[in-house]
Amino acid sequence: MENSIVEEKMVLIPKDKDPRKGGLRTMPFIIVNEAFERVASYGLMPNMIFYLMKNYRMEAASGSTILFLWSAMSNGLSIFGAFLSDSFMGRYLVISLGSFCSLLGMILLWLTAMIPQLTPPPCDRFTNVCSSATAGQLATLFSSFGLISIGAGCIRPCSIAFGADQLDNKENPNNESVLQSFFNWYYAATGLSTIIAFTAIVYVQDNLGWKVGFAIPAVLMFFSALMFLVGSSQYVKVKASTSLFTGFVQVLVAAFRNRKLSLSHSSIEQYYYHSDDSEFQIPTVNLRCLNRACIITDPDRDVNPDGSASNPWSLCTVDQVESLKALLRVIPIWSTGIMMQINLNQNSFATLQANTMDRQIFNFELPAGSLNVFLVLTLTIWLTFYDRILLPLLAKFTGKQRGGPSPTVRIGIGLLIPIAARAMSAVVETIRRRTAIEEGLEDQPDGVVNMSVVWLLPPIILLGLAEAFNSIGQIEFYYSQFPKSMSSIAVAIFTFGTAMADMIGSGLVDVVDRVTSRGGQESWLSSNLNKGRLDDYYWLITVLSIINFVYFLVCCRTYGRTKDEKEERLLE
């Protein structure tokens, strides 16, 4: 979900900064670009399952699989966008490219609603025979999804860092407070954008149809791109440099090339290549096989007169080696977050459930696709309470600057809560399905049962709380365990975890649908929820979440003490 809390903060320091460029005057262009892009793209997601099922004749499982893959593509391309901006094009060009691709994709999606030939014809009134979508129609739809994903992958990882480039001035004594203020306003704007997307855009789609519902995101994306380009002459445009991703590959290649070198147990007996301002003078003993990448065998051949490596694919710095080691060490704990994201990404089924329930709340009919707004509100309220009230109280009573639980504890809490949330979802679906059958709606998938949609809110609220613990805990854990040179990677691997969760979630839905529909039986994930067994699917996710939590405990034990825990032990 909220990848609003998981954008990559790669802040390069602008050199020879032109005082006439950058500064606060550029903020409206950058923040509006990001905010409008989020409203436009996030506004398409909640109701998209209905569009695929009604307009493209897809089953619920197939539509959910496509949406999983679409989300996976958007999150996965964020890594590519970050690499592209960091190593080749720079952030300005990548954001510009992303804005154009998103606009093109949304226009193409809008055209599928406007031009009848781009969707299957209506079902025959008399025979009730429905035609499936043709290859050309699906190609147009998937092309729009792909372009929107490319746009999101280019804009989201670069936008916040590009804004920081405009404000980052080491000569300003208030530099840190200015940057912190920007980050606060940035996240406030993206949070508000998400809420607007899940409410206003979804409401328009429900009440005015797809033509208007898709036109508004396209118009917003047009203004997003326009606003960004209008400020072009005022931006500080940091040139691309070497990416850490490239450095990781160099370490692997160099270690493989030097695989025949023997490793001495005494660091004095070998020379290691490091820069003057290196955090590490010699490599650690963890994953010693990678230490071969930074061993100098022939100083005259391996090192240039200016101190640089003659071939960075054969000799790397100790910092590069230790950075890769730090990344590899956290991968097991990182992998436990995939199941957490799978729990969060069951939006399509919750939307289908809501569509069959009484959605009247205080004389207002809640759009089925707006349920996730409660997740975002829970996340926002808890983070505000935790940061402004709970943490200061804990610091006061414990005498520590950060008196709250450690990042690993918060990750664990975030993995426990979804177990309760999904078990609750299973119970609610069992009650909903039984009520539908008792009311004679078993063969009426669009029938509304006499059961309030409020029943769906407790699991969603719990998942919002789980994300607040787990997602923030993960990012803080990575920041605390990585060397300073890897601060840009912390959020990048979190985003990649979300992409992996989408891919695995897609596979899980496909496997469950295929296995449970064998022999002509009704699939658990049938488009007719009253005949399917969505409750059993939720129980399956509950069991997998329990297994994942046990796996997390094993990973924590294997990882050992974190840096913070070691420092606290030394102070005792």
UniProtKB/TrEMBL annotation:
GO terms for biological process: transmembrane transport. It comes from the Eukaryota. It is found in: Membrane. InterPro entries: MFS_trans_sf, POT_fam. Keywords: Membrane, Transmembrane, Transmembrane helix. Its main location: membrane. GO terms for cellular component: plasma membrane. It is a multi-pass membrane protein. The chain crosses the membrane at residues 35-53, 65-85, 92-111, 185-205, 212-232, 364-386, 448-469, 489-509, 537-560. GO terms for molecular function: transmembrane transporter activity. Belongs to the major facilitator superfamily. Proton-dependent oligopeptide transporter (POT/PTR) (TC 2.A.17) family. This is Major facilitator superfamily (MFS) profile domain-containing protein. It comes from Populus trichocarpa.
